[in-house]
Design goal:
The protein is of the alpha+beta class. The chain has seven helices and nine strands, in the order ββαβααβαβαββββαα. Strand 4, helix 4 and strand 5 form a beta-alpha-beta unit.
């Protein structure tokens, strides 16, 4: 625990994400700088995916961001936006995106969290290194955290699984009496929980 760190309210699954104000971003689409806040995402009624990663100019990180970039258009069609976040500044994001060929197709905003405030709120800040772990968080348009995944530094994530999770969360948000089973994809069979299904999930999925 950091002796001198300010304490922040933690983000909790199923609860509204605590406000962290605005963070600076680099926008590869325009080549300029911008801002991001949960309040703005709620105002625009956007599903938001926050993708935390350890650092610019590293090794696994550009492969992950390249993978997410390949799914950006698909996610945007669902009404979701990706914001990548590390403890680098937005100036370093700009330089890295221009230098690293794997990032040529990255067009989502790259958020800067140099104080570690946002990383701490989401529980991914590593006090020993000052870096963020590989955390992925899905936030609905009302600002509620609905999904999270955290990996250590040495294993990258899969954007296909992110798309599946976003699809599933969007589906259950509009079909609150249904739940999505393992490996569910759009168009797949869902389950309506109830007394008749207890002990008979196999039959319910047929």
């Amino acid at each position: 625990m950091c002796e001198y760190c300010e304490e922040y309210e933690a983000a909790v699954i199923g609860k509204p994400v605590p406000s962290f104000g605005e963070i600076n971003t680099f926008d590869p689409k325009t080549g300029g700088f911008g801002k991001f806040s949960i309040e703005e995402a709620k105002k625009n009624k956007k599903w938001t995916v926050l993708v935390f990663y350890p650092a610019d100019y590293t090794f696994v990180c550009p492969t992950e961001l390249q993978d997410y970039a390949g799914k950006q258009e698909e996610l945007e069609k669902m009404g979701a936006q990706i914001i990548s976040v590390s403890t680098d500044t937005h100036f370093v994001h700009m330089a890295w995106q221009r230098d690293e060929k794997l990032l040529e197709k990255v067009k989502f905003a790259m958020g800067a969290d140099p104080t570690g405030k946002v990383s701490r709120i989401f529980g991914v800040y590593d006090e020993g290194s000052g870096l963020a772990l590989r955390g992925t968080f899905i936030i609905n348009p009302e600002g509620t955290l609905v999904a999270s995944e955290v990996n250590f530094y040495n294993v990258g994530r899969n954007a296909d699984e992110l798309v599946r999770k976003v699809e599933a969360n969007i589906y259950v948000s509009t079909h609150p009496d249904e739940v999505c089973p393992a490996k569910w994809h759009k168009g797949g069979k869902t389950i309506k929980p109830g007394p008749a299904v207890v002990g008979h999930v196999y039959e319910a999925l047929k």
